[in-house]
């Protein structure tokens, strides 16, 4: 399997993988609208600092990581926003292979680290730990809701 940077030309392949990978539990995402996906796609891969990496087997996209580069005072960080493996390829080492190749790519490019957010209760949490990710001490993901709480 070969690692390749993903770009705007790969929208159809990326849509096919994301649509199937996130349609099942625990996500149950419903990407029924190609227009909604296109807006998401441009948000995530249509920027100067966007970086998508895909694992290809022949002409087929097997797994992908979509994210962005953050330039800090002490180096560049690759922040993965979405990571997924085609459902028919899960459990066969494709995800671990992609993460291994991402790490090699990041080191070769001189990035200081690769980061991502996940839920502690999601199956992906143990997968990321198995592949070398560790929780960053003193970092917490926080959110500010836009809708008022209902009484």
TrEMBL record:
<feature type="domain" description="N-acetyltransferase">
    <location>
        <begin position="1"/>
        <end position="147"/>
    </location>
</feature>
<dbReference type="Pfam" id="PF00583">
    <property type="entry name" value="Acetyltransf_1"/>
</dbReference>
<dbReference type="GO" id="GO:0016747">
    <property type="term" value="F:acyltransferase activity, transferring groups other than amino-acyl groups"/>
</dbReference>
<keyword id="KW-0808">Transferase</keyword>
<dbReference type="InterPro" id="IPR016181">
    <property type="entry name" value="Acyl_CoA_acyltransferase"/>
</dbReference>
<dbReference type="InterPro" id="IPR050680">
    <property type="entry name" value="YpeA/RimI_acetyltransf"/>
</dbReference>
<protein>
    <submittedName>
        <fullName>GNAT family N-acetyltransferase</fullName>
    </submittedName>
</protein>
<dbReference type="InterPro" id="IPR000182">
    <property type="entry name" value="GNAT_dom"/>
</dbReference>
<keyword id="KW-0012">Acyltransferase</keyword>
